């Protein structure tokens, strides 16, 4: 299951993780090796086997919709790298 | 009264007796531990943050409550918290550059419950970044050293939480376990560690890694202490919809010194190829001991899907992680890199904020979930997850618990596996199936190989914590491994 450098760059783009050329090569090697190892799963017969998302089965969990205290605005904004008044400041998403 | 170092090695139950009898105050106990931290920390490096002033203040308040006649198993007892559980006003880093300066505006539910019970927080412990790793070598800050041999790893990812208990730097600690992160380091450090049933302990305020696998649990000096901590931290929490509604028993009532009437299975697949000979020998001795305590042992159990657990885990956990870690965008909190445009800033933030293993797993998860590979990797892994879970369920129709080694090797040398991710992943091979099935697993000290600790794992069906604690307790009463201290 050898990945190409192009594929590694594509995955990094999807994940929005910047990578250097050196990292591309290292990840290519390591991820290929790991995926190669996981090929063993293909040997398991899973016809008619349902998928498990959560191991402990739970029905819908609901609670009354009651108003209760939550974080203050100052608390919620305290860790924001860029703040403007009562807002989190972000970079332009749309460029014209 | 005993000297400072002896105080540092008390169990919760012993410390509680001392506090009740007024031989020591919580402030005395906390001071002794802080002194111990100053004495050994430059060698062990288990704490990311030591909360000295806050600890002394909490200890003073605990002493007032004690004086007022209040009584509680954790009142005045010093505890260490893994640095992925939110502590209001105390930075919570996940041992990552990304959260190096993050100060949570709220407490995790477990932190709240410990605080109400009067426990005294000594500090926040080092870990593999975002709990991804088995040695603490993936911490962005420093590697924690195993108190039994400073050239070796303490295990991970809760390596700091295991090391502080072994080194006498806390009376007990909390860890989190996604694929073995409580049990493997506990085993490596001669500590008792419990990964409860998925949902038994609230995950609210635990920084998410793989939400269908993560679980918080206690790391202690003996099984009784584990039961005492479980009594406090378990139970339904409306802020975690996956927390279980089942009533919480008094876990200490399960502790009995014999195993009569219990049927225990030893699955041969867990005695993996390449397992260290000394670990195997220690396990055989331990299993004979369980037999002499009255357990009925079946050594011919086979769990043929368990060996696929590693591949299933390293597809599912990174897939869940890549979604959970998408929130680190440098906007609301955490590290934020500067760049002219939004996309550049986002990529740079994640490039510089995450370490190599975290990036590796995000990319692995992104690949496993991407168009064209979803069926072959993610869905396939979820189906094999069903098979592993069903097989364990069937085993628990015949056995009260299963006995396995906690790890296939004794603690390895720092640097030994750091360059080869796959080799590192293999050290979780015995603990991973437990998370995949959502069942509880307990590790107890089971001997030494060349001076290095070996752990025995006890696995049960969902909500069988009491059975596990009973087996662990009976075994520990019959052995003396837990009384050993590292030469520090």
**What would CATH call the architecture of one domain in chain A?**
Orthogonal Bundle
Global shape of chain A: flat
Distance between the termini of chain B: 22 Å
Proportion of helical residues of chain B = 25-40%
Q: What's the arrangement of strands in the largest beta sheet of chain A?
A: 1-2
Q: Which structural class should the secondary elements of chain B be placed in?
A: alpha/beta
Order of helices and strands of chain A: HHHEE
Instruction: Report strand % of chain A.
Output: under 5%
Please state the average pLDDT score of chain A: 92
Number of domains of chain B: 1
Q: What is the H/E string of chain B?
A: HHHEHEHEHEHEEHEHEHHHHEHHEEH
Strand tally of chain A is 2
- Count the beta strands of chain B: 11
Broad CATH class of one domain in chain A: Mainly Alpha
CATH class of chain B: Alpha Beta
Total of helices of chain B:
16
Number of separate helices of chain A: 3
CATH domain topology of chain B: Amidase signature (AS) enzymes
